[in-house]
Write a structure and sequence with these properties.
- The protein is mainly α.
- Helix content is about 40%, strand content about 0%.
- The protein has helices at about 55-60, 70-95.
- The longest helix is centred in the last third of the chain and has 30 residues, at about 70-95.
C-alpha cells in the first residue's frame, strides 16, 4: 500500500496498463516525470518521445564540456581546491601564531 501506487478513485484497486504485467501484490506507479498517468487497459505513455532519450542521456552523462556531469565535476573541483587553499592558510596561520 504505497503512496506511489496508481489506484482507482476508491483507493482499493490497482490500475493496470495493458503493456505491463505487475508482479502479484504490486501496483503500477502513479505518474511522475517519466510516465504519464496510467489508464486502465491502455498502454503507458512516456512524457517524452523516444527520439529524445539519447540526446538527454548525452546532456546528462556526456563527455563534452556542456554536460551536467562535467559541470558538477568542474564546480566540485573548484570547491575542493578552495577548501584545500583555506586549510593550508589555516595551518600556516596556526604555525605562525605559536
Amino acid at each position: 500500500d504505497s503512496l506511489y501506487a496508481a489506484k482507482d478513485w476508491t483507493g482499493e484497486n490497482c490500475i493496470k496498463a495493458s503493456d505491463f504485467e505487475c508482479p502479484t501484490g504490486m501496483c503500477e506507479r502513479t505518474s511522475n516525470c517519466y510516465w504519464k498517468s496510467v489508464m486502465e487497459g491502455e498502454e503507458r505513455i512516456t512524457r517524452f518521445p523516444v527520439d529524445n532519450y539519447e540526446k538527454a542521456r548525452d546532456k546528462l552523462f556526456g563527455t563534452h564540456s556542456e554536460s551536467y556531469i562535467a559541470d558538477v565535476a568542474r564546480f566540485g573541483l573548484i570547491g575542493i581546491v578552495i577548501s584545500i587553499a583555506f586549510l593550508l592558510m589555516w595551518v600556516i596561520f596556526l604555525i605562525g601564531r605559536f
